[in-house]
Specification:
The complex is a heterodimer.
Chain A lengths: L2 H26 L4 H24 L4 H30 L4 H20 L6 E12 L2 E10 L4 H23 L3 H27 L9 H42 L2 E7 L4 E4 L1 H6 L10 H6 L3 H17 L2 E9 L5 E12 L5 E10 L1 H56 L5 H31 L4 E4 L1 H18 L3 E5 L7 E4 H19 L8 E8 L4 E8 L6 H4 L17 H11 L3 E6 L5 E8 L8
Parallel strand pairs in A: 9-11
Antiparallel strand pairs in A: 1-2, 3-4, 3-7, 5-6, 6-7, 8-10, 11-12, 12-14, 13-14
Chain B lengths: L6 E5 L3 H13 L3 E5 L2 H7 L6 E6 L7 H9 L7 E5 L4 H9 L4 E4 L4 H33 L3 H11 L4 H8 L3 H15 L4 H10 L18
Parallel strand pairs in B: 1-2, 1-3, 3-4, 4-5
The chains are: A alpha+beta, B alpha/beta.
């Protein structure tokens, strides 16, 4: 049996198969360069085997020389790809050694084609037929070419490179890889060099072979790569398990997972979200479709948040209501991370979404409670004030009344008791002052707090009061229209007092609207800049307005148009405005209702006291 | 003891209001005495003075309701009219249940105030006459000997002399004598009048001993 043909053909076959398999792996996964390099190396080894078989059956020395010259090509390709495989696979090896080797290999290729007959021999004088392994093969007889030493040098470089790379990899903990690659490569290279040296010396009855020793290397590489496949398999299994755990965890925590491919506008969501918004398996999701599943009021806001995150953020967070397929609306918070390419452009956002309906309801409840509380506090404070006020005022007023009645009677007496009446008048005067003092004390209550002037943004102030009154306004089905341009200059004032002022005016407005037809249930706050020094704020209602004869006195204490009013609210307002060096006045709206206007100095123009 | 001139006692911690009301009432023809606190009034008032009290409900120290109950337990329970700076429903209900003549705010119309004072003074007059008559009757009943009281109680139950004699274990003549004597002491001439008098004095037709005068009108 001709073993030589069988073995070399088998070698070529094995190498080609491996080359094919790994080439396919690379085609499927372009990033796995190790597989491509392996494929090239294995293909070259197969070519080597072919050339060697032809060499061994060469008819003439010239043919042998020519074939040997060409054999250098697959050997060079194979050696270079093996070298880069090592570097790629072990993630180690000195780059300058690698390039040095490549240069040396290129030199050998140039030399072998420029020298006659080739790099190995100065001349081949004849072919020596030997009978080996069941067939007759030829071995060259000739003079060794000294240039062939350059291949030895290149082999030394290759060895150094491999040993160095393997050692580095070993140190870095890739022990198995380093060992397999290092040992098989060094062995293969040494065997290959020994064979070629025997051939070069000429006359040695051995088959010319590079491919067989390289087969060792190829098999070593193949073994390692298949270990990778096994590893990948294990990783896949682990990944699946960890994914299952993840799903379990997300289910337990009621989390939805999502990922948005920004460039292709394609959204992947976990099954929980998918089934919530009622999408089948197959249907493609994009941003628009997701926005459709949100509460209409939340769409624009959410889209804006997404855009902002894409523009300049790394974090994405949005709270929104999502409408389920059954029409149920629940609150969610979505948090994600923006992933950007090397050019900084957003590639995708990955994140989770959590059902926060309970928390949100709690928040809304709390907010409602707070505003109710604020209202109750205010009302009870007013009520308390009213009670105290009524009690304290009734004393002097009662005294005045009784004295006046007594005076009437004394004057009717004949003769009138003038002395008594004079005493009465003195007492009445005193009691009047007492009543005034009570009112002053109420004013002092307002002033007692240390007044803190600061620049205040009118819009904020109005919004805060509107929030405070929100429940109250809604309860009365009144619409509050706020028309305060953001560009209006800040006013200088005491936040609490100005809030009190607006609160009083708005509450008065609300009272004035009681019993009005639904289309008149409107309150409006409008602000404008008067000039460089003042802004004007108007609070308008569509109620019954103020009787003309009362317009001038409406800010006096105890003047009220309400059945159970104390007549203190507007008086307090005037006090506040006076503290702020502004002015306040009332007028009737030609379209019905009252307008209260006040003027406040702007923050920058105000002269500090 | 001057029973004919009723005095209006005004109690209020607010001296200004106190003098105002005092002036008004004086000008309206009342005799007036003003006190700045309930304690001062209770310790300084003439013990048997007739009239009524006008008091503030809210006062430091002893307040109006405390004054009312102290007054009710005294020998001279004058009717009381409350004035208050601020209407306080629970307190006013309590005051009225305790027999206040009226409950007015300090800014109440003059007419209401004077009418309330007038009513209170008149009521005091009636109460006073009632109390005096009772006291007089009781003093008459107190003159009876124990045996006469026994006989009286049997007479009031409608028993005949014979039955009374049997019950008390004395002879009929003695019964007759006791009857004549007690009728004389009580200044009545018929059993019907006797029964009426006993009722007025609060003595029922049983064997109960004579009780002290009942508390003032509820």
């Amino acid at each position: 049996m001709s073993w030589i043909t069988a073995i070399w053909s088998a070698t070529a076959g094995v190498c080609l198969t491996l080359a094919g398999v790994h080439f396919l792996v690379w085609v499927k996964s372009r990033a796995s360069w190790a597989n491509l390099l392996f494929s090239i190396a294995a293909g070259s080894a197969a070519a080597c085997a072919g050339f060697e078989l032809a060499l061994m059956h060469a008819q003439t020395p010239a043919q042998f020389g020519e074939l040997l010259r060409w054999l250098h090509v697959p050997v060079a390709v194979m050696a270079v790809s093996v070298l880069w495989f090592v570097r790629q696979y072990l993630q180690a090896g000195r780059l300058w050694l690698a390039w040095l080797y490549c240069v040396l290999r290129a030199v050998t290729l140039i030399l072998t084609f420029s020298l006659n007959p080739n790099l190995n021999f100065r001349e081949i004088t004849g072919l020596h037929s030997i009978s080996a392994w069941g067939e007759t093969i030829v071995s060259p007889i000739g003079v060794k070419n000294p240039w062939t030493n350059i291949t030895h040098a290149s082999v030394v470089v290759l060895l150094v490179f491999v040993v160095d790379a393997a050692t580095t990899a070993w140190r870095q903990g890739l022990r198995q890889r380093a060992f397999v690659v290092g040992v098989t490569f060094v062995m293969g290279i040494i065997v290959a060099v020994s064979f070629s040296e025997l051939m070069n010396r000429g006359g040695a009855p051995v088959p010319v072979t590079i491919s067989l020793p390289f087969l060792i290397i190829i098999l070593g590489m193949a073994y390692e790569l298949s270990m990778d496949v096994l590893n990948a398999n294990r990783l896949t299994r682990e990944l699946r398990e960890s994914q299952e755990r993840m799903i379990l965890a997300t289910k337990a925590a009621n989390l939805g997972l999502w990922e948005w491919d920004v460039i292709r506008d394609e959204i992947w969501v976990s099954d929980a979200i998918r089934s919530r918004i009622g999408l089948g398996e197959a249907k493609r999701l994009d941003l628009d479709r997701i926005l459709q599943s949100l509460h209409p009021d939340d769409r624009a806001k959410t889209l804006q948040t997404v855009r902002r995150a894409l523009e300049d953020g790394n974090e994405f967070e949005a709270e929104y209501r999502s409408i389920s397929v059954s029409g149920e609306s629940r609150w969610f918070v979505a948090r994600g991370q923006v992933e950007r390419g090397s050019d900084g452009k957003p590639l995708r956002i990955r994140g989770v979404s959590v059902d926060i309906t309970e928390r949100k309801q709690g928040e809304i409840e709390l907010q409602k409670l707070q505003s109710e509380l604020a209202h109750i506090q205010r009302v009870s404070a007013t009520g308390q004030l009213a009670t105290t006020l009524a009690h304290e005022l009734n004393q002097p007023l009662g005294a005045i009344l009784r004295n006046a009645e007594a005076a009437e009677l004394f004057l009717k007496q004949n003769p009138p008791d003038v002395e008594e009446v004079q005493a009465i008048l003195a007492d009445i005067k005193r009691d009047d002052q007492r009543a005034g003092a009570v009112i002053d004390r109420v004013r002092m209550l307002l002033k007692r707090r240390v007044v803190e002037f600061e620049p205040l943004v009118l819009k904020q102030l109005v919004d805060q009061v509107a929030t405070l009154l929100h429940a109250e306004i809604q309860m009365h089905h009144v619409t509050l229209e706020i028309d305060v341009p953001a560009a209006i200059p800040a006013v200088r004032g005491d936040r609490v007092q100005l809030q009190q002022l607006l609160l009083n005016l708005l509450l008065n407005g609300l009272d004035a609207l009681a019993g009005q037809s639904p289309e008149r249930l409107q309150l409006r706050v409008r602000a404008r800049r008067l000039d460089d020094h003042f802004v004007e704020v108007a609070v308008m209602d569509r109620g019954t307005g103020i009787p003309t004869e009362q317009l001038a006195r409406i800010f006096d204490p105890f003047v009220t148009t309400k059945a159970n009013g104390l007549g203190m609210g507007l008086s307090i307002c005037q006090t506040i405005i006076a503290i702020h060096e502004g002015s306040i006045w009332a007028e009737n709206n030609p379209d019905g209702g009252a307008i209260f206007r006040f003027k406040l100095p702007t923050a920058d123009e105000r002269v500090t006291k | 003891m001057n029973r004919s001139a009723p005095t209006v006692f005004i109690v209020d911690d607010d001296t200004s209001f106190l003098s105002g009301v005092a002036r008004l009432l004086r000008a309206s023809g009342f005799a007036v005495k003003a006190f700045a606190s309930a304690a001062e009034f209770l310790s300084h008032r003439p013990p048997a003075a007739a009239g009524c009290v006008i008091a503030d409900l809210n006062m430091p120290g002893m307040d109006g309701l405390a004054l009312q109950s102290a007054l009710a337990q005294s020998d001279n329970p004058l009717p009381i009219v409350f004035l208050t700076g601020q209407g306080d429903i629970p307190a006013s209900v309590q005051a009225m249940r305790n027999g206040a003549e009226d409950f007015l705010t300090k800014l109440a119309p003059k007419g209401e105030l004077l009418a309330a004072v007038e009513r209170a003074v008149q009521r005091d007059g009636r109460d006073r006459a009632e109390r005096a008559r009772r006291r007089e009757l009781q003093s008459r009943f107190e003159q009876l000997t124990p045996r006469e009281q026994e006989v009286l109680s049997h007479v009031l139950r409608g028993q005949l002399n014979k039955q009374i004699a049997a019950d008390l274990g004395i002879d009929e003549r003695s019964v007759k004598r006791h009857r004549t004597s007690l009728m004389q002491k009580l200044e009545v001439h018929s059993v019907a009048l006797l029964a009426q008098l006993a009722m007025e004095a609060g003595i029922a037709g049983d064997r109960r001993p004579i009780s002290p005068p009942a508390s003032p009108r509820p």
